[in-house]
């Protein structure tokens, strides 16, 4: 099973192939560096070469050749993931889908496109038909739809539509297997969960069909609120207003906006918490009524009518993981957690705020799950040591909070800490040699792993 | 304050006016006869004449003239309401809005139209732009949008969008007052609740602006389920699937479908309960997955692919108050209640089923309220006497159920049994003589009424 890199590279020489070490290294990186833990482990990694197929046939050819020569293949879109999803742990080939960027068809309620299409470009094509994607990541301007499906879980729009994994939020995926003779499969319904959010460990997506929502000229808003609970309740209560259509409701504990949101800072007072919203224009009157009933809240910005000297840009680029990114740019010691507060969230949030103070700042995103709106917190953490970070996680768990650890590069550790049998069994079928994105599915490499410590992929390329 | 009918009639003689007793009586009736209690009290009523204005100016003229001559004015759309909303208790003038039926403009997310436009025609105009009304009554084919707003509360679509009264579900209402010199007012935001669901007691709506949803070729479905709780859970759980877009989820306890749904009867087994659904076509794959996980449920009809000899027509014409209508056509003794089951609905429903057996059949509609899906039951009742009906209401209340009594013709008694101060204070301003739809707002006529018994409007025209 020794990879023959040179033979594979030679057999693929007629494709768009790159083996310049500098650019290969650049194309072998994603946004894993949001996590100091992942940065310490993955920073040295690079693929041996990068192939950018121009068609599904070239995807098939690449997978066939790499299979024959035992060369690992790690698929990437734009590389905006934060969990090392696209990092080639064992080197080999990075399959870059940038040329597969065509939007094929837009129908009422659905779009068909290639995986390398940018979310922004998919939306542009859908907008021409009065429609848009139900949800997207805060990296909308640069991320691909295939990367979002394979490596993401939800984002802007999840306050209304839930998560990508929910029934109906992905319609169809076309997938190529990594076998001696790769097969092309079409998945719908129950089968979709085999390959969505599987980091490309068990197939390469070559076409996607996604459901759409009506497109509106969403009004972006910032609301300053004098009390943290009141800010959180404003966001959640608004999401529960059935007649007011929203696309985003984010809450930033003070002094997140004061310290990290440069263009918001002049407009917010010390101690005020910030709520970011996207609201359909025809719901703005109703929102005005809603807001007028909350005396501690003041509207400081609306994108359709404001007098700010410097436009803050799209409001959604302050939410989800753009919050972490903005904080990181100001303070390189910042990292984050992903926390759920089951049951009544308010006492748990109060407890975490009391326990950690400025070390952990609440950053809430309203998401819908099982028909009910609640918070996901992408809490900002001032990183000191890995040991302290682990302690912060343990303290959250000790108080009944769930943590989805973003400082892990495997599917299981970043999720619910157990393997997905559907994904694993499909990997056995579709990637019998285990060459697709190796090291990302513990269930494949080490079925007896007990999750007591961070997992180490034994096949990881050593730093030079 | 004695009305001078003849003078008013003469002054309005140049308008579209009708004083033929037979047709005036027909135009003085709504669907109050769903209730045997209302039928006993309202059946004899008729207006003195009917005016059908052709413009807002003619509305103003009619109100000005009737005000001058102390003539009561009761506004009507199509008269499909079930609470006697459009019944002229004191006679006088019925203002028929059939000529004000223009759809003025359709914008992204909203429509502007006149109140007499049929819901069906508003939708047709919106469909040309890929949009449709968020919610409508089961009388969509014949009811007007003004009547829906003034006399209704929700319906098909409320499983997703909540009720008409929720912030954002009505955008703007233009209203003419009943004064010496009628004024034209525009209401938005907080002011809308003054006149929406006020039965035309404090103003005449002459233009409406409503929010829209994307239009889809909704697939109508019937699902037969072997167990009542499983049927209810299927409907509620489906509404809680955030990625599956639905417009209707209704549950009919057996033998409702067997006894009253003629075209469904051949396809459903004895004892099976029926669920009626409307699902967006691009969510049908996901619904297939959802349904496959429920072994006791079988799909017996989908509107886009079926082999039924006799097409059942639109699925929504089995839900909401069309259920009662279909039952009434088979068994004239059938009437209904409107019940909410606060908290966990399943034990309460089980208790009611055990208590009443075939006398009260559950008919559930899934509605969203405050962000949460739940059931409204428009329970079918085999009517015997008014006393027994009252006892059934009391037994519901004794077990913690809320009943909104459809056997009452006043705003307060059909609602939460207290007056709406906003509507009352606007009536003082907009209808100082109390001539608009007299007898429908207890707060105006008898502020001290204690709701211990059915209220009797002292000004009601006697039977001849």
TrEMBL record, chains A, B:
Q: Does the keyword Membrane apply?
A: no
Keyword annotations: FAD, Flavoprotein
Q: Which residues form the FAD-binding PCMH-type domain?
A: 42-215
| Signal peptide residue numbers | none
What is a biological process (GO) this protein takes part in?
A: lactate catabolic process
Give the top-rank taxon of the lineage listed in the UniProt record for this protein.
Answer: Bacteria
Q: Which GO terms describe its molecular function?
A: D-lactate dehydrogenase (cytochrome) activity; D-lactate dehydrogenase (NAD+) activity; FAD binding
Official protein name in the record: FAD-linked oxidase
InterPro entries cross-referenced by the UniProt entry: FAD-bd_PCMH, FAD-bd_PCMH-like_sf, FAD-bd_PCMH_sub2, FAD-linked_Oxase-like_C, Oxid_FAD_bind_N
